[in-house]
Amino acid sequence: MIALGFDTPDIFWLAPLAAAPLAFSPLRIRKTAAIAAVPEDRLSAAIAVVLRIAGCAAIAALLVGVAGPYRTGALVDHIGEGAEIVFLIDRSASMNENFAGRAPSGDEQSKARAATQVLRDFVAGPRKDLAGVVGFSTSPMLVVPITDRREAIQAAFAAAARPGLDHTNIGRGLAMALAMFRADESGRSRALVLVSDGAAVIDPHLQTDLRADFKKAGVRLYWLFLRTEGNARLHDIPESGADTPQAAPERHLDLFFQSLGQPYRAFEAESPEQVHAAVEQIDRLERRPVLFTEIAPRQDLSTPVFTLAVLAILVLTLAKLAEIPAPVRRGGAS
Amino acid sequence: MTRANWRDPRLGLLILALALTLAALSGVQTVIRRAVYDVVIIVDITGSMNTRDATLAGRPASRLDFVKAVLRESLASLPCASRVALGVFSERRPFLLFEPVEICGNGAPVAGTLDALDWRMAWEGDSHVAAGLYRSIEMARDATADLMFFTDGQEAPPLPLSGPPAFDGRIGDVHGLIVGVGGYELSPIPKYDDSGREIGFQGVNDVPHENRSGGPPPDAEQREGYDPRNAPFGSRAMVGSEHLSSVREPYLKSLAETTGLRYVHLETADALSRAYRAAAHPRALDAALDLRPACAAIAALMLLALYILPPLLSRLSANRARRAERLRAPSPKPERKAA
Q1: Is B269 in the same domain as B326?
Q2: Residues B37 and B134 in one domain
Q3: Which residues of chain B are within 8 Å of residue A144 when distances are taken between CB atoms?
Q4: Which residue in A has a C-alpha nearest to residue B328's C-alpha?
Q5: A34 confidence band (pLDDT: 50, 70, 90)
Q6: pLDDT tens-digit series, residues A240-270
Q7: Are B124 and A8 within 8 A, CB to CB?
Q8: Cβ within 8 Å, pair A152-B17
Q9: How far is A276 from A29, CA to CA, in rounded Å?
Q10: Claim to verify: residue B88 and residue B135 sit in the same structural domain
Q11: A85 near A193, Cβ under 8 Å?
């Protein structure tokens, strides 16, 4: 749909003024004793009509120009690649340490900065995602609702590199992230990307709810596990007796995710480079064709309008220049 | 024989109008300085902000909901290219949700985040307002932005006798507002259980009414069970009105004074925007100003003058001339009367 628009349409209240040339003439009115004295002249009549039209056109075109005409950008459908992604980001204090578990020094990056830097690049790329961000620590926080505005998502990632809070309440974070996916209207494939450097025991009641939520949302789950040096790997099986959710929360969270019956992949990253590689892989896996709509930039229509005005005024000016000067009245003193 | 009459003012008007229209056609513009704003907004989400002593659309609303509604409207009135960051305050520090983003392009997600602010986001129940404010000021300074800090000013636990911690920032580094939220009358504070369900109101025994860190008050010796070593605050817990809440305006005003911010009580979006603009430190932004509409408007006025004025003037002068003639040659009627 192509439609016309105006910056200040109120100007058109003045539109009747464009009819002024029909009533008045800027040419000198020549007083003639008897109109019958002038022979009827088709050319003169035509010129008179042309001049009136030029006058009306000039004023009308200028008014339209003042109103600022444009053609509204049409909605254009494109096909791109992307998905509907919610990023669930751990904001516990340990995320501000580096991969060795110490405060970053020199040009070292904290886990939070390393991860969010890579994610910012991911969002800045050519992908056409709808994305949202949830943070979690002691409690979950909705940071940015699902949106196509990349700048807002990047601002959220940037803020996630700031000092974090206390705990890692992963269960409630997952619940909030899943709640972000509303009843499906976009038809996009959905992914949940969990970025954390640890895990915590999820309350059994909440586990049951989460299972149902995961099934309902139909999301693919990615866990970007930022493993700190010396911590257990996801697949390390602790010696018998120590294999409890409390002693090995990461391994048990991994087991819980595997038991969901939804597509799931875990990535263990121990350095910024590995984070980069993992996100690249998610990028590859989450490429589905998506239909997205963009508004084409609006098109300014002032130029043709002003061109018309210039031509019309030019005609009027030429007519004025061609005017025969009034005869000097002689002895006409009153 | 045609010869232009250059002395005719109408020709001059036509040529000027032509020149202005040509200028409009060429796309003239100028650069103007515009004021845009960068602001870090921190909203107190501690328990007392759940107090329902505000009114939204004729219904009682919690302070937090009131802040969200007013702020939403107020943000929409910021000029484009202004940047907004949003964070929450609880315990003793602000927590930034997102860094400053341009408000016009990101209005929808910003409003969505604002709507989702909830006391359940709080990571701890304490509310050290002064400490949180000071760190928010630091945060705004590092972001070279103004600050808007929304709070009811209720310290929980109450401040020790020595008062709020000292402000170690510099006055004038950060401009902005402390926005007092809440009514002036004491109202009960809703209470929630562990799973977030409301279970009535805070009772008098649910909250401490006195801060026992620091020195005891001077009247402690008169208290029941006072013992200088074992019970310097007396043996009974103080009972006060900390379980009820109203906006602590004198306290917030004193904080505004120490930090160089301005204090305003939250009423309407208009009032908030006005107060903010008065207190803010705007950023100058060069923006192109399209002069085409102005040129076209002047040209149109000239053409209208060309068409409407001379005939009107000549008609007027003709009328005047006719009247003058009539006066000079008196009409026959009075003549007859005189005769």
Answers
A1: no
A2: yes
A3: 97-98, 109, 112-113
A4: A334
A5: low
A6: 777 788 888 888 899 999 998 889 999 999 8
A7: no
A8: no
A9: 83
A10: yes
A11: yes
Chain A 211-250, residues with CB within 8 Å of chain B CB atoms: none
**Six-digit token string for B154:** 């209720």
Residue B318 counted as domain residue: yes
Structure tokens at A155: 């601002």
**A80-94, A148-162, A286-300: least confidently modelled range:** A286-300
User: For residue A46, what is the enclosing H or E element?
Assistant: helix A42-67
pLDDT digits over A82-138, tens only? 888 999 999 988 888 888 888 887 778 888 988 999 999 999 888 888 899 999 988
B156 located within any domain: yes
The residue out of B250, B271, B288 marking a domain boundary is: B288
B61: Cβ–Cβ under 8 A, 6 or more apart, which residues? B52, B54, B55, B69
Q: How many CB atoms lie within 10 A of CB A92?
A: 22
Do B115 and B18 lie in one domain? The reply is no
Q: CA nearest A74: which of A303, A299, A228?
A: A299
Residues of A whose CB is below 8 A from B296: 62-63, 65-66, 306, 309
Residues B15 and B129 in one domain: no
Full-model pTM: 0.79
Q: What is the pLDDT of residues B98-112, one digit of tens each?
A: 999 999 889 999 999
Q: Check if the beta carbon of residue B44 is closer than 8 Å to that of residue B150.
A: yes
Provide, as residue numbers in chain B, all residues whose Cβ is less than 8 Å from the Cβ of A25: 307, 311
Q: By CA distance, what is B24's nearest residue in A?
A: A306
Residues of B in contact with A142 (CB under 8 A): 112-113, 116, 118, 121
Within a domain: residue B227?
no
What is the span of the domain harbouring residue B328?
9-28+291-338
One domain for residues B56 and B172: yes
Of B24, B98, B100, the CB nearest to A306: B24
- As for how many domains chain B has, the answer is 2
Global ipTM = 0.78
Average pLDDT, chain B: 87
Same domain, B284 and B307: no
Q: How far is A187 from chain B (nearest CA, A)?
A: 21
CB distance from A180 to chain B under 8 Å? no
Could you tell me the sign of the dihedral formed by the alpha carbons of A221, A222, A226, A229, in that order? positive
Give a yes or no: residue B4 inside a domain: no
The verdict on A328 touching B (C-beta cutoff 8 Å) is no
Instruction: Quote the tokens at residue B110.
Output: 């910003």
- CA distance, residue B118 to nearest chain A CA (Å): 8
Q: Which of B265, B288, B311 is the last residue of a domain?
A: B288
What SS3 state is found at A295? strand
Dihedral sign, Cα of residue A213, residue A215, residue A219, residue A225:
positive
Cross-strand pairs, B156? B127
Mode of pairing for the β-strands spanning A190-196 and A140-147 = unpaired
Where residue B189 sits, what CATH number does that domain have?
Answer: 3.40.50.410
| Mean pLDDT for the stretch of residues B126-130 | 90
pLDDT greater than 70 at residue A329: no
Q: Is B92 on the interface with A (CB under 8 A)?
A: no
Full set of structural domains in chain A with CATH: 4-30+37-73+297-321 (no CATH), 77-294 (3.40.50.410)
pLDDT at B339: 38
Clarify whether residues B16 and B96 are in a common domain. no
